[in-house]
What we know:
Elements: H1 7-16, H2 18-37, H3 40-53, H4 57-65, H5 68-86, H6 93-100, H7 112-131, H8 143-158, H9 172-180, H10 183-202
Amino acid sequence: MTERRKPKNVKQAMLDHYGHIAPVFFDTMFFPLAAMNFSYEDIERVVREAQQRGDDMMALVRTACASDAMYNMMVDEYKTNFTALLGGRCLPVADHLAAHSSDVETADDFDTDRAIELTVRVVMHAYARGLGQTDNGISKFRQPTLFRLLLDAMNVLLCDEAADFSDCDEDLSEMFLKVCRTEHNFSVMTDEMDRTHGEIIDK
């Protein structure tokens, strides 16, 4: 376990940034949630209408979810992870899969490419926003941290069980191929990583 992931340090980080977490979460999650439910043109309309109503970011995210069921699922997942972090624990991949794999049906029209792209975008933007909350606000991307986050995210998104990397000889490409499952998915992920990194750098 790394020093940063020790329970006392996770708890301290949560206390130090308690007031920033929800705003950053909602700001980061709005576009991916909206993109799952609306066309780009409709997203623009939804934002305009929300601004006219004076909606705050939480209300805007609720609109992006498009249904009470999806919104409630998002809130439940947020609370589960938030509670774990307050307790000094980052939920492992196995816990996520155990909680959701048995009761989630795979939709026939599930767009795997789009799901990978949105997941990469969320992970990278969330990581960048998190770095922006540091004292100096100029912390740089740490590739090992980002790759670990992306490995976990692809594992949860595309696999039915926590990946065993013991046969990968610490080869990062082999590890990503294992969780991506196909060369195509791997390419979609890396392409989106490059695109999102450029978007973040340009901001």
